[in-house]
Amino acid sequence: GEPCYILAVETSCDETAVSVVKNGTEVLSNLISSQIETHKAFGGVVPEVASRKHVESITYMLDEAMQASGITPRELSAVAVTQGPGLVGALLVGIVAAKSAAMAFGKPLIGTHHIAGHIYANQLEHDIVYPCIALVVSGGHTELVLMESEGQFQLIGRTRDDAVGEAYDKVARAIGFPYPGGPHVDRVAHESEEVVTLPRAWLEPDSYDFSFSGLKSAVLNVINQTKMRGETVQAGAIARGFQESVVEVLVEKAIRAMREYRAKQLLLCGGVAANQGLRTALRERCEREGIELLVPSMKYCTDNAAMIGAAAYAKWKRGEFTSLDMKADPGLYL
Ligand code: KG4
Ligand code: ZN
């Protein structure tokens, strides 16, 4: 049939992103403007500041992404945008821009779930085979999602408190790294010969839920006690202990879900999929168990719009379009 070209917009947090994706797999253009430098001064993402920054760059980026794609607005099949979850003010900027583009070009709108986007990031480089399990790990999310077929999402586990990335960033801050600290913790964890043993939160034996706030508190206690004794904080040993605890629980629960649901593939996605400790542990474990593991390249792990284009394509194929009076939904259900 006719090729499908989707113009996709993502502004749920601190990256303004616009992309044009062909047939849900071929990325024709992929622009990302990160606000990390702006938010660094505050030690985290400030919602109001995020919205303003999105407003400053979105129009220009829409234009750039179309130019770089080599296709004309006439050729577009649809305009997709992240509807939620995320920061409501940030989401609104992308939604207004996408609606305007859809109206101006006379194209249908496709509201997309941010996590569906992270999961479908895998489709940009691999073929997803169902049933599959997605382990979504980012600054805002920690979820195990079962997909029995395309476009079907069943949340089988989620964090009951902090998201993994959030816990990484808080621990990083406590041991003195700038925001976002996840990559720093990852690095020093690898360099350290020493390890501080920390607890693992398994929760109920059959639960696929996660909890990281206890672990985070344990880290803060170790740091405080060390300081009270007048000793130097062993950042590497703490980072390594924290990472080992996080990785062990994530890997164990993901593998158990793979077995229980007889899934054919394990999809790792979200910003924390960049974590070397997690990637290595999952790769080794999957190899041993004969499980096929999909991991998107780094640029598709962190927030981007190409993943939204890939997720929207699945909806486009089913003719699932979204009304132009659609609203941002910060707590959107998958
Ligand atoms: O998916 P993402 O870009 O944004 C959200 O949707 O949240 O994820 C960002 C998160 C941050 O918390 C960051 O610290 C974490 O991913 N992160 C890492 C690593 N790289 C990024 N955490 C641990 N190890 C890493 N290498
Ligand atoms: Zn994300």
TrEMBL record:
Q: Residues that bind Fe cation, according to the entry?
A: 114, 118, 303
Which residues does substrate bind? 136-140, 169, 182, 186, 275
Q: What class of enzyme is it?
A: transferase
Tell me one GO molecular function of this protein: tRNA N(6)-L-threonylcarbamoyladenine synthase activity
Which cellular component, as a GO term, is one annotated location?
cytoplasm
Stored InterPro entries: ATPase_NBD, Gcp-like_dom, KAE1/TsaD, Peptidase_M22_CS, TsaD
Presence of the UniProt keyword Iron in the record: yes
EC code: 2.3.1.234
Q: What cofactors are annotated for this protein?
A: Fe(2+)
Q: How is the cofactor bound?
A: Binds 1 Fe(2+) ion per subunit.
- Give yes or no: UniProt keyword Iron: yes
Q: Which UniProt keywords apply?
A: Acyltransferase, Cytoplasm, Iron, Metal-binding, Transferase, tRNA processing
Q: Where in the cell is it found?
A: Cytoplasm
Q: Using the UniProt record, give the first listed, main subcellular location.
A: cytoplasm
A Gene Ontology biological process in which this protein takes part is: tRNA threonylcarbamoyladenosine modification
Q: Which residues form the Gcp-like domain?
A: 26-309
Q: Which reaction does it catalyse?
A: L-threonylcarbamoyladenylate + adenosine(37) in tRNA = N(6)-L-threonylcarbamoyladenosine(37) in tRNA + AMP + H(+)
PANTHER family the record matches: TRNA N6-ADENOSINE THREONYLCARBAMOYLTRANSFERASE, TRNA N6-ADENOSINE THREONYLCARBAMOYLTRANSFERASE, MITOCHONDRIAL
Family per similarity comment: Belongs to the KAE1 / TsaD family.
Instruction: Write out the function statement from the record.
Output: Required for the formation of a threonylcarbamoyl group on adenosine at position 37 (t(6)A37) in tRNAs that read codons beginning with adenine. Is involved in the transfer of the threonylcarbamoyl moiety of threonylcarbamoyl-AMP (TC-AMP) to the N6 group of A37, together with TsaE and TsaB. TsaD likely plays a direct catalytic role in this reaction.
What name does this protein carry? tRNA N6-adenosine threonylcarbamoyltransferase
Source species of the chain = Paenibacillus kribbensis
Instruction: Tell me the gene name.
Output: tsaD
